[in-house]
Amino acid sequence: DAGITQSPRHKVTETGTPVTLRCHQTENHRYMYWYRQDPGHGLRLIHYSYGVKDTDKGEVSDGYSVSRSKTEDFLLTLESATSSQTSVYFCAISPEGGNYGYTFGSGTRLTVV
Amino acid sequence: SQQGEEDPQALSIQEGENATMNCSYKTSINNLQWYRQNSGRGLVHLILIRSNEREKHSGRLRVTLDTSKKSSSLLITASRAADTASYFCATDANDYKLSFGAGTTVTVRA
Q: Touching check for A8 and chain B: CB below 8 Å?
């Protein structure tokens, strides 16, 4: 989607390896979010950021960490990938948190084997 | 846990018919939003309705909100094949993040 890109689009990794997913925005939005999408669960929030170096946990944060050193980049790291982290990961941005519609990236399909 | 729950889980309609899906939520909200997701793509924001609003329109979309029943409905009128997608409601409890439901999958038959 315009203004937000995720990389990589697809990744296959082995159990126990660290993995970093990147979200890059050109909209200068304050808020950035990482969600995972699994069948039957909809989207579940992993972590979010409300400014540079300001982050907080979501409902499914165990096994994940994030960093935001610049306004435009929000990184999601799986510290030691497990098969339960096989999912589609979406990044979203917003200028005013939940008070405004989100713009979503195209997603990263991650498979942990 | 998820704040919103959509009903039905899946819906199949003929082209030209109306599609209605519902969302129920558990706690007080600041606003409720609806999103569409086409297969293999990211979610696209459709409409936002604030807690002090009861109805909102956008093109062929009509959204209602009943805060006393903690529920919302999304109506798509005169459906088209291009409306085939999953639809999600999301709620903002004034805590800077949205909570999404599991979605309704809509199939529009030609």
A: no
